[in-house]
Amino acid sequence: ISASKTVSYACTPTVSGSSLGTETGSQTVTISAPDRVNTGDKYSVAIKMSPGPENGPIPLDPGTVDPVGSIIVSNASPSNLKVYGSSNSSAIPAQAPIPVPSMRGNVTATGSIGDSITYTPGTFTFNSPLLNAVTTCEPTSAVVVLSTQIVAEEVDVSGSSGQSTLASTGIEEPATKAWLSAGFLYLGFLFITVLPKGWRRPGSKGTKA
Questions:
Q1: Least trusted range by pLDDT, from 80-84, 175-179, 184-188
Q2: DSSP of 131-194, one letter per residue?
């Protein structure tokens, strides 16, 4: 099964450890997982952010940014599931949304029969090693997107770590980083910072179209 909810994020880009300020805005987050499991079952959970960050005025080359997501999970282990996405395989035009891939990881149900395993979007980071830069996006509030019920009757999640019960979540390639010279490193990152479309700095007038 899968479900989607709107989640507000505060994103802070840094270059060489120096913060460039914080932006706020919303994304649609979709989480997929089995609807029912047994205690002790190991199974797969997937998360996707949409529409994803918006590129700035500079086109981006392939293979530039590595996305990492997290899911806060109750009644299962690990309780903070880290999931990793592939870097972008194609160029991203200027001002275009930067697709965030569907990212998947495994958890083990630790709760008791009758408990619900809940899934709450956690932190997303977009790492750009070439620029020595990273953008960290923290949810501004906890939003439970989906839950799985722990049941007594036997449930089969074997064969593909529970993926047979998941909605299709094919990997799309994410993105960000550019072919900027060292002299333009700092300025370049100001332009290509991965922040969702329409985001604005708190207190600023207007939003980006």
A1: 175-179
A2: GTEEEEEEESS----EEEEE-SS----TTTTTGGGSPP-PPPP--------GGGHHHHHHHH--
User: Which residues, in sequence order, are CB contacts of 159 under 8 Å at separation 6+?
Assistant: none
**37 touches 109 (CB < 8 A):** yes
Can you tell me the distance from the alpha carbon of 6 to that of 18, in angstroms, rounded to the nearest whole number? 29
Please tell me the predicted confidence (pLDDT) of residue 134.
Answer: 81
Q: Per-residue b/e over 162-177, b at no fewer than 16 CB within 10 Å?
A: bbebbeebeebbbbbb
State the pairing for strand pair 116-121/133-139.
unpaired
Report the candidate in 176, 183, 203 with the shortest Cα–Cα distance to residue 60.
Answer: 176
Q: Which two tokens stand for residue 94?
A: 């200027």
> Can you tell me the distance from the alpha carbon of 121 to that of 115, in angstroms, rounded to the nearest whole number?
20
User: Where does the pLDDT of residue 208 fall: very low under 50, low under 70, confident under 90, or very high at 90 and above?
Assistant: very low
Tokens of 14: 């840094």
Angle at alpha carbon of residue 82, lines to 68 and 135, rounded to 5°: 30
Kindly indicate the confidence band of residue 160, based on its pLDDT and cuts at 50, 70 and 90: very low
pLDDT of amino acid 165: 36
Read off the tokens for 4. 């989607």
